[in-house]
Sequence to fold (504 residues):
Amino acid sequence: MRPFRYERPADTAAAVALLAGTPEAKFLGGGTNLVDLMRLGAETPALLVDVAKLPQADVEEMPDGGVRIGAAVRNSDLAAHPLVRQRYPLLASALLQGASGQLRNLATTGGNLLQRTRCVYFQDVTRPCSKREPGSGCPARDGEHHNLAILGWSEQCVATHPSDMAVAMTALGAAVRTEGASGARTIPVTDFHRLPGDEPQRDTVLEPGELVTAVELPPLEFARRSRYVKIRERASFAFALVSLAAALDVADGTVRDVRLALGGVAHKPWRALRAEEALRGAPATPASFARAASAELDQARPLRDNGYKVPLARTVIIRTLAELAQAPETS
Amino acid sequence: MLAEVSLRVNGTEHALTVDTRTSLLDLLRERLGLTGAKKGCDHGQCGACTVLIDGRRANACLALAVAHAGADVVTVEGLADGGELHPLQRAFIERDAFQCGYCTPGQLCSAAGMLREAADGWPSAVTPSLGTDGIELDTEEIRERMSGNLCRCGAYVNLVAAISDVAAGEAGA
Fold:
């Protein structure tokens, strides 16, 4: 591992200032991904600025009924928080289906958003990878890609985003609050993560040195009727092959509103806007759910060995919506 | 690059100068001679390095020692109360919850942390209604909550039995 300097600033301003002065610096949250990547040589920061102890560890209700989550809130604390369990069960469930108990105790909200792909080529420094070494190529396209993208990939990169939490936040239409050298801004989470395009090295739209300070969840009454469904190769402690965050609002047998996001299928959590559009105003029936799934997945471009993800995603969408349509109000 | 780190381990204060790259696991094993916590994968995937940091279970292999300066750490060596084994340690022996023993220190620390999480009302991925109706540590719950600890010998059946015994004892206490 490359030697690095370690700093533990007292506040956000100091953290941002430290990064502004050092191009090869990184923020450190729980370290569950970054430390691993440093050990593998895939990340080589010269300075780590520890932001896990900044005073950003609160979950609080906002005046509009939404919830603000500090970037340093641990995944385990967030999953157990009463406001999250009651109002956003899909988010609590997504968190609890991610990683393991001991990893969730370390991992932070900001770090979870910013975790890197688990594509084997990205993690193996002996192989080319345009995400790690821009322009070096993507061996995954013709190599080991059974768990990689079916939507939105580019010639440069077919990686998937590994987070469960971010998929639920994407379905909810959360906002990411940041602070950087040029001040604070708010970024819709749907715009926060990027598709790879010609710059797969950029996972997000964050500027160099910009720090995630919080995530804000909007009030969404019908999110009380929501689920996070994760399909994986073993029962627990594995990344998603396909996952779905879904919230459904049904009245008199008709879909009034819906939120859908897919995980494990693209370089970013995939908000299924076409499926949502197909569902609003439609009867809450399996036929409608199947049409919605097709509307979204008609865009899919599976690779040689991951075509199974298309019918898998389709089945998960149909089944989950059917279950939500029948579920009693949880409130 | 060197850094000063002070932390409490199993009730004893330590002040050390460490390379910033040192994991908490390497500090425990190489500097303090506490070789109970094991280096299995060194990537957070096996749980053999699990210790309690400020009462919470965590993978010591991914925890940088400098990032946990000031922490209160408990390893498997600190679970027993003097000569009195921890209830989990007694249950592991009673139920023969191991074969080679390599994962056992991590399993014990993880189970100790897990029991506290459940007592605090934390739900798991299999808890009905996300725990708003309470939590019952049945076999399915224990398996899910302990999924961060792998056992290559496959002693899971007896591990679940041992942890169930302690969970039932605490629930009845």
User: Anything to note?
Assistant: Chain B has a mean pLDDT of 96. The first strand of chain B starts at residue 2 and ends at 9. Residues 156-172 of chain B form the longest helix (17 residues). Helices of chain B lie at 24-31, 87-95, 104-119, 139-145, 156-172.
